[in-house]
Design a protein that fits this description.
alpha+beta
């Protein structure tokens, strides 16, 4: 890049010395900008060949240096050494210099061809310019043309002009077709593009269109500036636009740029037309043309522009919006499409993106975001375009919306509950019209049920996932409990019974020889039978307490409370009998809670309350212990097991606790009383 700048500077100096600056200087800004943008793109996106292609255009500086030296050499008498060779090098460089330009058109913006079918054009983009370069190098096919170097002789006339000229003529036609094909690939890419790629292509199309319009305007102005001025000022914009598109810097601003360009261009044309029509036209009609300006006509033109400016500006703005953003739907069409889409059977993950898109297209918003309230946070769920989806959640206070940094933010309620919000951001310099604001409010008013359904779906999916996890934990707990029982039976009652059988066998063998010793062994065996029976009862109580099966919850819990290391009060008047699995779930959940109180709470007492409320069997276990912070402490294995056991029967578990204020565990199960058996 530094070498290219030095070469550019040398070419500029030589062109000025030759008094032919217009032959070289107009190309310098364009090539410098292309090379600079190419260097930035190549450093940021090294895998994209477009940056390297633009950077390679700095090699054309050598051709410009050769041209500048040839022009300079012609001003000397005799001609400077190497003048003809410099001119020859410049002519050859012109032919091969089209290669990077064609490939930029073929590969923009991602650095790949539109499809494999375009490989033929890519090969032609290399081969055809080389053919032209070789033809120019070996024969005077255009070296001594009137517009080139008619005063010099081609230094390399290897082949006669009559032989090479037909080939060169075909080359000129084919290279034009190759350039048109490359441009056609860009047009086809734009027609097939969507989203981000379309915005990239808009940048290059806008810059190219602006440059072409500049050429046309300057060429059509009588005695105006040279069209080369457009080349100097507008062609570098193509390089800048290409760099913005490839680097994706402020990509979506192109719509704003195009919109404002159309608006300001048409307003300038309107003011010019009014001035020409009144000052020049009416002035000529009354005999006072532009050679003698009429102050009254100038004031009249200014007044007309001032009065008509705002209405014309509004119409021009609508035209520009239509041109850039396309036809926007009417409010009725937006609401109709919104209703039909929301009534359709879409997956929940599709509903909110569709809502954001409908809202953005109906209001012409640059960005539309759908927010969903999750707890006390407002979470961005969908946006149009999706690239503009915010990344973080925002806190809500007292049901009020936080600052969403948008032109319009609307809360979404359903039955008085805040479920989410809609936010709109308009393009820079464009205001939200009353009609668009009303449309957004209508969409927000109808979106409450949608968000409610989405949230219910999400909650249901979360509940199903929790249920699946709880079932897995229950299965694991059952397997663990089964292994514990197996181990207790094997190590306890089984060993006792084996020892008891051996003792009875020995006692039988001693019955005839030593009756006293046999009687003592039988007495000991009787005690061991009693102990084995007690161990088996303890195991049976762990599986399903007999007292619970015979007398119910209150009696079984009261018996267990008497064995607790801390005082436990049981309150459960009027508690009936319920299904076995319900009573077992409540019984073991309460025992687990009491065990936690004894182990961890440091409490002086505990209270267990049983009641039936609205068809639910409810139990509450309260203690006056140390408590804990529920926001930082999750369920342990004991509480999680209780929650899983209750959830398997459609119940719930709630834990409330505060430091130094004790803990309250509340469980609920839907129940139906068992009918007494008739006699």
């Amino acid at each position: 890049m530094a070498i290219a700048v030095v070469i550019f500077a040398g070419a500029a100096a030589l062109s000025l010395a030759a008094h032919h600056p217009s032959d070289v200087l107009p190309f310098l800004p364009a090539l410098l900008v292309f090379a600079g943008v190419g260097a930035v793109v190549a450093s940021r996106r090294p895998a994209n060949p477009l940056g390297w292609l633009m950077l390679s255009m700095s090699g054309m500086s050598i051709g410009l240096l050769a041209d500048a030296y040839a022009r300079f050499g012609l001003t000397r008498t005799p001609h400077a050494v190497g003048t003809a060779w410099a001119a020859w090098a410049f002519m050859v460089s012109i032919e091969v210099g089209t290669v990077p330009l064609i490939f930029i058109l073929l590969l923009f913006p991602h650095g790949s061809l539109l499809s494999p079918r375009w490989r033929v054009v890519a090969w032609a983009a290399v081969v055809v310019p080389l053919v032209g370069g070789v033809a120019t190098a070996v024969s005077d096919v255009n070296f001594s043309a009137q517009t080139n170097f008619p005063m010099l002789r081609d230094p390399v006339p290897l082949l006669p002009r009559s032989v090479v000229a037909p080939v060169y003529g075909v080359y000129q036609s084919v290279i034009l077709l190759v350039i048109l094909a490359a441009a056609a690939s860009l047009v086809l890419r734009f027609r097939r593009s969507r989203g981000e790629e379309r915005q990239q292509l808009k940048w290059i199309a806008f810059a190219g269109g602006l440059a072409a319009a500049g050429f046309i305007v300057l060429a059509s102005v009588p005695h105006g500036p040279e069209p080369v001025l457009a080349f100097v000022t507008l062609v570098p914009l193509i390089a800048l636009a290409a760099g913005i598109a490839v680097l994706k810097y402020r990509l979506y601003d192109i719509d704003v740029v195009m919109n404002k360009t159309v608006v300001y261009g048409l307003l300038a044309a309107f003011i010019t037309a009014v001035y020409v029509a009144i000052v020049v036209g009416i002035g000529a009609a009354i005999g006072q043309g532009s050679s003698k300006p009429n102050l009254g006509l100038s004031i009249l033109a200014t007044a007309v522009v001032a009065v008509a400016f705002q209405p014309v500006r509004a119409r021009v703005q609508r035209f520009a919006n239509r041109l850039v953003y396309g036809k926007r739907a009417t409010p009725y069409e937006v609401l109709s499409e919104f209703s039909s889409r929301m009534a359709g059977t879409y997956a929940s993950e599709d509903l909110l993106p569709r809502m954001a898109r409908v809202l953005a297209e109906g209001t012409g918003a640059r960005t539309a975001v759908v927010w969903l309230r999750v707890g006390e946070q407002l979470k961005p769920e969908a946006a149009w375009p999706m690239d503009d989806l915010p990344t973080g959640s925002l806190p809500t206070r007292g049901g009020e919306l936080p600052d969403l940094s948008a032109a319009l933010a609307l809360p979404i309620h359903h039955r008085g509950e805040l479920l989410g919000a809609l936010s709109l951001s308009k393009p820079a310099g464009e205001r939200l019209t009353p009609a668009e604001g009303n449309l957004a409010k209508d969409v927000a008013s109808g979106a409450g049920l949608v968000l409610r359904n989405v949230r219910l779906t999400e909650e249901l999916l979360q509940r199903l996932e929790e249920l699946r996890a709880s079932r897995q934990r229950l299965v694991a707990a059952q397997d663990q409990e089964r292994r514990r029982l197996e181990r207790n039976i094997h190590d306890g009652a089984q060993q006792q019974l084996v020892a008891l059988a051996e003792r009875v066998r020995l006692a039988r063998s001693l019955t005839g020889g030593d009756p006293g010793k046999s009687s003592a062994m039988l007495t000991q065996a009787e005690a061991e039978v009693t102990q084995a029976l007690e161990d088996l009862r303890d195991l049976a109580r762990g599986i399903y307490p007999p007292l619970l099966a015979d007398r119910g919850l209150v009696v079984a819990l009261s018996a267990q409370a008497r064995k607790s290391p801390i005082p436990v009060e049981i309150e459960g008047h009027g508690i009936a009998r319920y299904r076995q699995e319900v009573e077992a779930a409540v019984h073991f959940s309460i025992l687990e809670a009491l065990q936690n109180v004894a182990k961890y709470a440091g409490a002086s007492k505990a209270i267990v309350r049983l009641s039936v409320e609205d068809g639910d069997l409810t139990f509450v276990v309260e203690d006056d212990g140390a408590g804990f912070d529920t926001s930082t402490t999750s369920y342990g294995t004991g509480l999680q097991g209780m929650a899983d056991r209750l959830a398997a029967l459609g119940g719930t578990l709630e834990v409330r606790s505060r430091l130094r204020l004790g803990t309250t565990v509340t469980g609920r199960l839907p129940v139906r009383e068992l009918e007494p058996v008739g006699e």
